[in-house]
Amino acid sequence: MEPPAKGTVTPLASLFSEEEARKAASYVEEKIGEKRVEMNRLQQFVDENDNLINLVKKLPDQLHHNVMVPFGKMAFFPGRLIHTNECLVLLGENYYTDRSSKQTVDFLKRRDKTLQSQIHSLKAEIEDFQTEASFFATTASEAAEGLVEIREEYVEEEDLSATVFQSSEKETSNISGGEAEEGELEDDDFARIMSRLNELEMEEEQEGEDGGDRGEERDSPIEILEESQHDLVKGIRGETDRGRIEYGKQETTISVPMKASRHSSSIREPRVAEPRVKAKVIQVLPEAHPHKDIDDQLNCIGPMAQYLPKGDQSHSGTAQQNAGTWRDFQATAGISTAKAKTNVLGPQKIESPIEKPEPEFDSTKAFTGSIVEHAHIQETSTHSDTQSSASQPSKPVSRFKAQRR
Amino acid sequence: MEEGRQKDLQLLEEIIDKGLKQKLVHATASRDKIFEEQKVLSDLRKNLETLEKNAVNSLKTMVNLGSEVYMQAEVPDTRHIFMDVGLGFYVEFTRHEALDYIAQREERTKKQLEEYTGVITQIKGRIKLAHYQIQQLLNLPEENPSSSRQRAL
């Protein structure tokens, strides 16, 4: 830590003088007054309208009413209102229409509604101005009290950054583990995967420190993913063997390892950026990281939701011949393909990866996905061959289509 | 000397802004009211004259119920008319009596108008005088642009 003072201290009064703040407050108060006047005017209209509605409602009760008929502004004739169910209503722009008193009441009610909405918006405006005024007033009083603003640049030191990074990594892994809150078996799997990932990362750190090239880095996450894929599929398989057939359960249990694998890729990204910008790592890790995890989860869960019903569909399509195990397999296969996709696409930051699965899949396969695809498909297809003859080992998605037929 | 001039200037400006201009606004407002009254009276007179000319004894009209909603109304007898004579009093006139009354009233409003016009011109003259005094206090150079402005106006 550096002993000399790094920050700056600015008294609030120098930024906003008390006088100015008070002036602003009074200005806003004036505006509030104007708005109040306007609102009173509108309220008057509303009252008039209400009176008129009552009057028009009452008028048809009798055939005629004796009234003083105004003749100009200063003179009246004694007379009476006739045709009490007929009103001539101004629509605006000098257009009048004949209406019955009921229709007139409806018309006036609609007018009342518009007036009310106007009053409502005015009220909101006044409230807005009031908060503004109170803000100015508090600023003024704070400036008067001599409040100061202290700013200090956050400078991170070398060795500290490494420890922080490590700890934050552990933290995030713990967090995602805690987030999962599934069965212990999954946690075990997850822990195993994480430890493996950590090992791999350590190796990587030792190998290429300042290389930092995306191209070099790209291969390694996929290797890890491959690894994790194997583990995952095994884990899932173990689960299904144990006989957890319910779909909802399956969904949740599978989401745990997915999180783990996603997690690995998301850790990797800040790691790549690390040697270049020290401070950024510190910022990115604690804040952006969990956030990203959530995003990734969303991305993952999306395709899962897409894929599970598909499995269901195919299940119903071939309803006669299947059993619970077959169904399980479908679910796992669908999810693992979905997972494979998201994992492969993840590092490249492609948004909404599974909308058009086939072309994207091919394009990614061209330079990154091949290993994952291969391993994965062999893994699944060996199983699928035992159970479905319609599977095409080259592309998992087309296999899906085939199954759906 | 300089201070006294500043004080005079301030005083004059105060007189113009706070005294004379507000008076002028009041005077013009009340004169506008009287103009309106005059217009109402002349309209009423014309209407009554047409009724008289055509010997109309009953008429149908539309009554404004408020907010531009009208309803038909019938006047069975137009020979008698109630007129506002001020302070909320209404007097029943026959048409001839009403016409006489309107003529008298019009004359009175005319006088009032003249009065108010006199007051307004007086206020305007005072304002001009104050301006002139300000010019005097600020010496000649200020006089030329303002006089040219007056010509332009």
From TrEMBL, chain A:
<dbReference type="InterPro" id="IPR004127">
    <property type="entry name" value="Prefoldin_subunit_alpha"/>
</dbReference>
<dbReference type="GO" id="GO:0019212">
    <property type="term" value="F:phosphatase inhibitor activity"/>
</dbReference>
<feature type="region of interest" description="Disordered">
    <location>
        <begin position="374"/>
        <end position="405"/>
    </location>
</feature>
<keyword id="KW-0175">Coiled coil</keyword>
<comment type="similarity">
    <text>Belongs to the RNA polymerase II subunit 5-mediating protein family.</text>
</comment>
<feature type="compositionally biased region" description="Basic and acidic residues">
    <location>
        <begin position="266"/>
        <end position="275"/>
    </location>
</feature>
<dbReference type="GO" id="GO:0000122">
    <property type="term" value="P:negative regulation of transcription by RNA polymerase II"/>
</dbReference>
<feature type="region of interest" description="Disordered">
    <location>
        <begin position="159"/>
        <end position="185"/>
    </location>
</feature>
<feature type="compositionally biased region" description="Polar residues">
    <location>
        <begin position="378"/>
        <end position="395"/>
    </location>
</feature>
<dbReference type="GO" id="GO:0006457">
    <property type="term" value="P:protein folding"/>
</dbReference>
<feature type="compositionally biased region" description="Basic and acidic residues">
    <location>
        <begin position="211"/>
        <end position="249"/>
    </location>
</feature>
<keyword id="KW-0539">Nucleus</keyword>
<dbReference type="GO" id="GO:0003714">
    <property type="term" value="F:transcription corepressor activity"/>
</dbReference>
<dbReference type="GO" id="GO:0009409">
    <property type="term" value="P:response to cold"/>
</dbReference>
<dbReference type="GO" id="GO:0003682">
    <property type="term" value="F:chromatin binding"/>
</dbReference>
<dbReference type="GO" id="GO:0005634">
    <property type="term" value="C:nucleus"/>
</dbReference>
<feature type="region of interest" description="Disordered">
    <location>
        <begin position="199"/>
        <end position="275"/>
    </location>
</feature>
<dbReference type="Pfam" id="PF02996">
    <property type="entry name" value="Prefoldin"/>
</dbReference>
<feature type="compositionally biased region" description="Acidic residues">
    <location>
        <begin position="200"/>
        <end position="210"/>
    </location>
</feature>
<dbReference type="InterPro" id="IPR052255">
    <property type="entry name" value="RNA_pol_II_subunit5-mediator"/>
</dbReference>
<protein>
    <recommendedName>
        <fullName>Prefoldin chaperone subunit family protein</fullName>
    </recommendedName>
</protein>
<dbReference type="InterPro" id="IPR009053">
    <property type="entry name" value="Prefoldin"/>
</dbReference>
Automatic annotation (TrEMBL), chain B:
<dbReference type="InterPro" id="IPR004127">
    <property type="entry name" value="Prefoldin_subunit_alpha"/>
</dbReference>
<protein>
    <submittedName>
        <fullName>Uncharacterized protein</fullName>
    </submittedName>
</protein>
<keyword id="KW-0175">Coiled coil</keyword>
<dbReference type="GO" id="GO:0009409">
    <property type="term" value="P:response to cold"/>
</dbReference>
<feature type="coiled-coil region">
    <location>
        <begin position="34"/>
        <end position="61"/>
    </location>
</feature>
<dbReference type="GO" id="GO:0003712">
    <property type="term" value="F:transcription coregulator activity"/>
</dbReference>
<dbReference type="InterPro" id="IPR009053">
    <property type="entry name" value="Prefoldin"/>
</dbReference>
<dbReference type="GO" id="GO:0006457">
    <property type="term" value="P:protein folding"/>
</dbReference>
<dbReference type="GO" id="GO:0045944">
    <property type="term" value="P:positive regulation of transcription by RNA polymerase II"/>
</dbReference>
<dbReference type="GO" id="GO:0016592">
    <property type="term" value="C:mediator complex"/>
</dbReference>
<dbReference type="Pfam" id="PF02996">
    <property type="entry name" value="Prefoldin"/>
</dbReference>
